[in-house]
Amino acid sequence: MGGVSARLEDLPLRADLRGQTPYGAPQAALPVALNVNENTHPVPQDVADDILDSIARALRDVNRYPDREFTALREGFADYLGHGLTREQLWAANGSNEVLQHILQAFAGPGRTAFGFSPTYSMYPLLTRGTGARWVSGTRGDDYTVSASDAAAQVADAAPDVVFLCAPNNPTGTPLGLDVVEAVYDATDGIVIVDEAYFEFAPADARSALTLLPGRERLVVSRTMSKAFAFAGARVGYLAADPALVDALRLVRLPYHLSALTQAAASAALRHAPVMLGMVDEIVTQRDRISATVEALGYTAHESWTNFVLFGGVDDPATTWRALYDQGVLIRDVGIPHHLRVTAGTTDETTAFLDALASVGSAA
Ligand SMILES: Cc1ncc(COP(=O)(O)O)c(C=O)c1O
């Protein structure tokens, strides 16, 4: 057709979306990409082969719509999570982003509010506004922690319809005590989402909010295969909650939202959970090495229970980010003054980052 393309201002865009910025972490093809908290280890070859076999079998029936209830996959997640969960309590979608979107579509929307303690995962406000709801930011202490009493008071004050508790928190890495979850739950009549995207990187004796599910029908625990499972490109996230809450999500999901190929791939990967998670210890070692080394360079590493480290004491984050970029190392400027965030990679990637940072000079 040709012609000049319209500008966004010329289109009848929803008023509440005008001026908003889309999610846009840079996707530059640099040799060392440590900016979006992926697991940088590839899926082991024998697991990849088994996943491929499963996809090949699913492909034979791809002329038909997939199992709308992704029954086998929900059973796989229930088995993986344990805690006596059954498939009626499980839900999944294309990444935990879509899982969170389903919750917001069902429980937020126009005239309602969602709440989280900033700084936190940047998609929460975007997903919230996407449903027409209002985003309300709470605050954290100087070290990014929140106490149970403060969290409960802030939530009671804001009276939101949905509360996000990112545990551990992105982009800071901060752990969150279950006492905070309990206190926040008691301070609201709304839905409380505990986002455990990074839970597998927490210390082995850390307790999951899954242990709080019995008797709390408004509590949701979300997880993802994108991080520990090295499955970000497959787009698979999931949650556990009361069966009634799961039922509500059926009202808003698209029919057959999880493709047969996705279901086959995720179920196969779950069968290999111990191997897939075998890289977690190595990543935790690299994370702790990053913390120790940036501290030795004079920066401040914030406590992290995740696969990344937020470090402070950066004089000018944009300049440091660029200097690393020019050396082929991509990390993330998350917009917190004097801070940068880096994902723990393989030993070699982590070394490349630490060497590049050292070459940029010590902290101011
Ligand atoms: C806290 C948190 N939740 C959810 C997600 C989304 O993950 P995905 O949609 O890949 O499952 C991320 C990704 O970075 C995250 O940091």
Automatic annotation (TrEMBL):
Keywords: Amino-acid biosynthesis, Aminotransferase, Histidine biosynthesis, Pyridoxal phosphate, Transferase. Belongs to the class-II pyridoxal-phosphate-dependent aminotransferase family. Histidinol-phosphate aminotransferase subfamily. It catalyses: L-histidinol phosphate + 2-oxoglutarate = 3-(imidazol-4-yl)-2-oxopropyl phosphate + L-glutamate. Its EC number is 2.6.1.9. Its cofactor is pyridoxal 5'-phosphate. Pathway: Amino-acid biosynthesis; L-histidine biosynthesis; L-histidine from 5-phospho-alpha-D-ribose 1-diphosphate: step 7/9. It is an enzyme of class 2 (transferase). This is Histidinol-phosphate aminotransferase. It comes from Microbacterium kyungheense. GO terms for molecular function: histidinol-phosphate transaminase activity; pyridoxal phosphate binding. Homodimer. SUPFAM superfamilies: PLP-dependent transferases. Residues 32-356 form the Aminotransferase class I/classII large domain. Pfam families: Aminotran_1_2 (PF00155). One of its GO terms (biological process) is L-histidine biosynthetic process. The gene is hisC. CDD domains: AAT_like.
